[in-house]
Specification:
The complex is a heterodimer of chains A (177) and B (494). By secondary structure, chain A is mostly helical. Chain B has 21 helices and two strands. A two-stranded antiparallel ribbon of chain B has the order 1-2. The chains are: A mainly alpha (177), B mainly alpha (494).
């Protein structure tokens, strides 16, 4: 049997905590800065026609700063400065459970948006997309909370969407999909 | 004098009174919804004014503007879901105090500071508008660039536990803010072929995405450990702000009002800069800086007095020069024109009656915000008693709806979701989200003013000596940076 600990859902992602996390962050910043310099800025910024500072001036300066800050993070965390030491003292930790919860929440909201958009376009009535998708989205988000009693599902799905509909359409005259 | 008295009498009619009250209610309600803000509230309210007489109409819009200023603090304090970037400063101490079971105390501090800051800037507007406008006109791109660079240096002290990661967050925010059409050549930058990005990243969507949505996701995450009851046990008696306590904040409020008025008088700088500068100043001069960020009343008072003071001061360049200082003021120009009033240097001669009536309506709106806000405090504070499985799914839906409505489509909502992922990861990696927002808001202003300065100075660095004020500020910047670093080292050593 291996002595290596088995990572469960509450383990930090790739064991990234404290100094090690900031060291990896520093390396990622350096790579991101090079990516900006070598590919993204030349691809996305056109300097032709400028008469003062070039349009790429600010993005390039900022990319250099990111490169410098990435290097500083690497050096600080390799040499164990006081600032780097603070990263080891508690603070937030990114776990696998965090990532799966994030994916669940964002995925649910994204599905709600897609349904809102396509139901709205398909049915064609004002607010149809919202009234079709919002109750389902709220049901899912209430379920994600994990401790909601039965009445909360009914309350959120039945009362909240009509209340928002009334407030936005009749109260403010603002359109929803 | 007769004109002034007649104008004040016009402002004190029942129709103007009711219009201002309605405006304040609309402003507070809309300002409290994540994603909706004061400009949105004014846009919604403008059609209501079409059949009103000019003073009642402008009074209603002024009421919306002032009500919206306080409304933004409600979501920021109670749910840590700021509706606008400047409200992010209020969350720093407002939400921790609400979490300690003192939401009403936090809201009272925000309300009173907001009204005090707004009143101070209104008094300055009424007494000194023409004089200040002349000074504001002299602040060109070179001076603005110097002010912004110095401000950014001052605000750097909000970078949290790691200065390097705070600096990265600011730089990253500024980098993302360069997306959109280049201000000089009109060629697209970082738009990746999306026409929706030509106007740049929608600030409201990004702010809600990185600040509010991650907070909602984290509160939903806590759901599995929730054991029922209220999330913040509010205890009557201790959850009230005593007059003596607010009196003790007078220096912070006056400082915030001063900063807000100065920033607001200069077109284009905005409420976010004022709020964070005031917070930084409050932290610097506080007797207990270690309490800042943990529910200190000073933190709430500093940000709310400053961001509310901006709204009154923004009227200085608007009324005297016809230059709107921000989006809210730009919408007010539209409303003025709809009602046959042209802002500009001649307004005090052409429409003197209306302008003095407007001043009276502004004071009336401040009183209304105080009255209506005080009545509403008990109701607002009750939001914390609603179970999280009802509040957070609803607030997330309101974020989606608010951004859809304010940005006019799904694109901004998708951006909001993308930035929610970024915001969540930033929180978990201990990177300051506040610094990211500061970079996002100030970055484009600094870039624009520097590029304008380069053209203005003819690419000749020596020409900066013609701008003594700007030169002084630029020379002061490294000294300020050194002082801040020294303070930080002392704090770390302690």
């Amino acid at each position: 049997m291996s002595d290596r600990p088995i990572l469960d859902r509450t383990s930090p992602v790739a064991g990234l905590t404290g100094r090690r996390r900031d060291l990896v962050l520093g390396v990622m910043l350096v790579l991101f800065a090079w990516l900006l310099h070598l590919w993204i800025i030349p691809w996305q910024v056109n300097d032709e026609g400028s008469f003062g500072l070039a349009p790429s001036f600010a993005p390039r300066i900022l990319a250099w700063l990111i490169l410098g800050l990435g290097c500083v993070l690497i050096v600080l965390n390799l040499h164990g400065s006081r600032e780097a030491g603070m990263a080891d003292e508690g603070g937030p930790v990114l776990t696998f459970a965090n990532l799966s919860h994030l994916a669940l929440c964002i995925g649910t909201t994204a599905l709600m948006l897609l349904l809102m958009r396509f139901a709205g376009a398909k049915i064609g009535w004002p607010y149809a997309g919202f009234l079709a998708a919002a109750p389902l989205g709220l049901l899912a988000l209430t379920w994600i909370h994990g401790r909601a009693p039965g009445w909360a599902f009914a309350f959120n799905a039945v009362l909240i969407p009509p209340a928002i509909y009334l407030a936005f359409w009749f109260g403010l005259g603002l359109p929803l999909p | 004098m007769e004109t002034i008295l007649t104008a004040v009498a016009d402002a004190l009619t029942l129709s103007t009174f009711l219009s201002v009250a309605l405006g304040v209610i609309i402003g507070i309600v809309i300002g409290a919804v994540p994603g909706l803000n004061a400009p949105m509230a004014i846009a919604v309210a403008i059609p209501l004014t079409f059949t009103m007489d000019p003073l009642a109409a402008i009074g209603l819009l002024v009421g919306v503007m002032k009500g919206g200023g306080f409304g933004g603090a409600i979501g920021a304090i109670l749910l840590n879901t700021p509706g606008e970037p400047h409200s992010a400063a209020t969350t720093l101490d407002g939400h921790p105090l609400a979490k300690k079971g003192k939401p009403r105390r936090a809201l009272q501090t925000a309300l009173y500071s907001s009204v005090a800051g707004d009143s101070c800037s209104d008094i300055v507007l009424i007494l000194l508008a023409p004089t200040l406008a002349v000074f504001a006109l002299k602040a060109g791109p070179v001076e603005l660039a110097a002010i912004l660079i110095l401000s950014l240096t001052l605000i750097a002290s909000l970078s949290g536990r790691s200065l390097t990661k705070g600096a990265f967050a600011t730089v990253f925010g500024a980098l993302l803010a360069t997306a959109g059409v280049d201000p000089e050549t009109a060629s697209p930058r970082f738009t990746f072929g999306y026409v929706d990005l030509f106007d740049g990243l929608p600030l409201a969507a990004v702010a809600i995405g990185v600040l509010a949505v991650p907070e909602i996701i984290m509160r939903l995450e806590e759901g599995r450990s929730w054991r029922g009851g209220t999330r913040a046990a509010s205890s009557e008696g201790t959850d009230r702000l005593h007059v003596s306590e607010f009196f003790g904040l007078r220096k912070t409020v006056l400082r915030g009002a001063g900063i807000g008025t100065a920033i607001g008088a200069l077109p284009g700088l905005g409420t976010t800069l004022a709020a964070f500068l005031s917070y930084t100043a409050a932290k610097r001069f506080s007797k207990h800086p270690e309490k800042m960020g943990k529910g200190a009343l000073e933190g709430i008072a500093a940000t709310e007095s400053a961001n509310s003071a901006v709204s009154g001061a923004n009227m200085i360049p608007l009324l005297t020069l016809g230059i709107p200082g921000n989006l809210t003021a730009a919408l007010l120009v539209g409303a003025f024109l709809i009602h046959g009033v042209t802002p500009g240097p001649l307004i005090f001669q052409r429409d003197a009656g209306l302008i003095y009536g407007l001043f009276a309506a502004m004071i009336m709106a401040n009183v209304m915000v105080l009255l209506i806000g005080s009545i509403g405090l008990r109701v607002f504070a009750m939001i914390l008693r609603v179970p999280p499985f009802v509040v957070y799914p609803t607030v997330l839906l309101l974020c989606v709806v608010g951004i859809y409505v304010s940005q006019g489509g799904f694109f901004a909502v998708w951006l909001m979701l993308g930035f929610a992922v970024l915001g969540y990861l930033m929180v978990k990696l201990d990177i300051s989200v506040v610094c990211f927002i500061i970079g996002l808001v100030l970055g484009p202003m600094i870039e624009l003013s520097i590029r304008q300065s380069v053209v203005l100075l003819g690419r000749n660095p020596v020409a900066i000596f013609d701008h003594v004020f700007a030169l002084t500020l630029l020379l002061a910047t490294p000294i300020v940076a050194w002082l801040l670093l020294r303070d930080r080292k002392r704090t770390l050593a302690a």
